[in-house]
Write a structure and sequence with these properties.
The chain is built from three helices and ten strands, in the order ββββββββββααα.
Amino acid sequence: MGINTSKNPMNFPDAEKKGGYKLASLLKENTVNPGDTIIIEQYITGYGAYSGFKLVSYISNKVFDENKSFLYAGFIPPSEKNNNKLQWGNEKLRFTNDGVTVLPASMRIDGWPRPESTFDMESGTNKIVTEMALLNAPFVYKLKTLKNARPGVKYMVFYLTFFNGSEWICEESKVEFKINNTFERYNTTLSILAALALFVTILHDGVAPLFDAFHEVAKLIASLKK
């Protein structure tokens, strides 16, 4: 696939008209255990005039290990090392529980002739580079949850801001994920153990003691859900 190197980064018909862009956020796994890593891939899709992008994120709770959570973004320009292909993932940015602000156009490499946030990948088409996975997605978040993170549903909210040639636009993208509690984390193992315990009880004492067994299992499950 060739790269459009014309002066105008976008030259599909009506490229100079008001731009419209959305942030697409893809979550690899939306249910994790404490200590697991959340992986989010993001793309900017759309077309038309824009002033450059600002990407800001906010988090509902402090659940990430800041020493092991990063955002990968920025261009790796074509070279012999990557078979002369454009790739994503040059910058490794520390991600904190306060969120992060990114200006994609500022993440270019010295000597790389494309300072724009996005541009046509081929002349005559309106497929822009930020819509494409080039080895990686344009923005990849690898966020490690704390081992003592409180269980429950968490939210990350992302805002994409740009000037579309007529007015400022701010688009929202929300990502929801869940951190399991102790019972949910070991649910399969506990179910197997409970079934074995009931089976052994039936073989040893008959059906009558089942009521006591059910009561004990219920108490165990209730304590683990807390």
